[in-house]
Amino acid sequence: MTEVTEVTQGSDRNARTATTQRRTKETTIDASLAVDGTGAVDVSTGLPFFDHMVEQLGRHASFDLSVHAEGDLHVDAHHTVEDVGIVLGACLAEALGDKRGIRRFASMLLPLDEALIEVALDLSGRPFLAYGIEFAPDTAGLGTPPFDPQLAEEFWRAFATAGNLTLHIRRLEGKNTHHMLEAGFKGVARCLRDAVRIEGGGIPSTKGSL
Hints:
- The protein is α+β, with helices and mostly antiparallel strands.
- The protein is built from four helices and nine strands.
- The chain has one domain (4-195): Imidazole glycerol phosphate dehydratase, domain 1 (Ribosomal Protein S5, domain 2, 2-Layer Sandwich), CATH 3.30.230.
- The strands form two sheets. Strands 1-2-3-5-4 form a five-stranded mixed sheet, covered by helices on one side. A four-stranded mixed sheet has the order 6-7-9-8, with helices on one face.
- Helix 1 (48-61) runs parallel beside helix 4 and helix 2 packs parallel to helix 3 (151-163).
């Protein structure tokens, strides 16, 4: 189990913004997120391909997103990728607060050349990930240092768990590793953009809370 030495969070729920700092023996991460932003992104994790994916998440969700991460990449990229997912999910949950008035649900099909990815999500308060983009264990990494494509699932699991949301991502078509991963990030981003939209005044649940 990762030993967390320091975690601090802050939020302005009226403005739907949040900041998080996470310090462990494996990673140091500072992040901020504004739900009602313009898609301004500033991402640095030491993994250029992963930076590109997280940038897609912020830009296509129209979130203002800043992530600065330093991790033990000399050991493995897993810690950095997973912990960024934890931090971003926590930021989203903090920024949304009690989720009053949000649309809550969203789904879409997103094409990227030969790849076609299906995404559905529910800002449910119940963390769950169903992930259906599979790669052979010997699939080449992307970028330098290399990003193992299988780490995308670890990112989304951490994001869904910390963000308290239900997330389904499934490949319908696709051969190119880059295209499939990027379509997944863009699809989740576009669904988040729809799901966080304010369209009412109450909490969208018969339970009275999410």
